[in-house]
Amino acid sequence: MKVIEQELSALKNNISEMWALVHQQIYNAGEAMLTGDKELAYKVIKRERRVNAFELKIDSDCEDIIALYAPVAIDLRFVLAMYKINTNLERLGDFAESIARFASNLPDGEPMDPELIKNTRVEEILKQLLEMIQLAQEAFDKEDSEIASRLFLIDNQIDELNHAATPVIAAYIKEHPERALVGLYMAGVIRKLERFGDHCTNIAEELIFYLDAKVMKHMEKMSQDTED
Known about the structure:
Elements: H1 3-35, H2 38-69, H3 73-104, H4 114-120, H5 122-142, H6 145-175, H7 180-227
Helix pairs in contact: 1-2, 1-3, 1-5, 2-3, 3-7, 5-6, 5-7, 6-7
């Protein structure tokens, strides 16, 4: 195996590890918010340092590969795609941390109001986001742009839920003025979750950028072999 192939393989492995970490961070942050589990929230906040460390390493690896090996064609597309995916994963990690901080600020022993959770459908939003991240990683592992394209439909559904939650929260604050701060926090959380979806679609776009070019390359090679 060529040295550059080893470097690209190592880069892909690092991205996969970061992906798994970010997925767990979002899951834990959501659970902490829904249950009021401050210990879990603090765990998410603490592990954010690992996400940041991954981002710095992957950024450095991408820059080194370009500088040392001058990749071209599909290899260059891969490195550029990983560089941008890395940035979006780090932003997802940031959002997970911010939700965990919200959960850590909830009153002791008082989880989020079940009525507010139900009416804003925030659990459904979280479930769809986790599905987006899982699908994106599946598309990455299987090198399948068709799987990546499914993320756009899910993002549209999340956008609709985000818009529908605004009047629900407004009504909640009006009915429970003593819990206005919780309502405002929830509005902020749902907005962050909507941004989660945007970053997931950014990742899908980068995967399609890389994978479709790879498919085209293989098709061109097969055509040449047929002609020969």
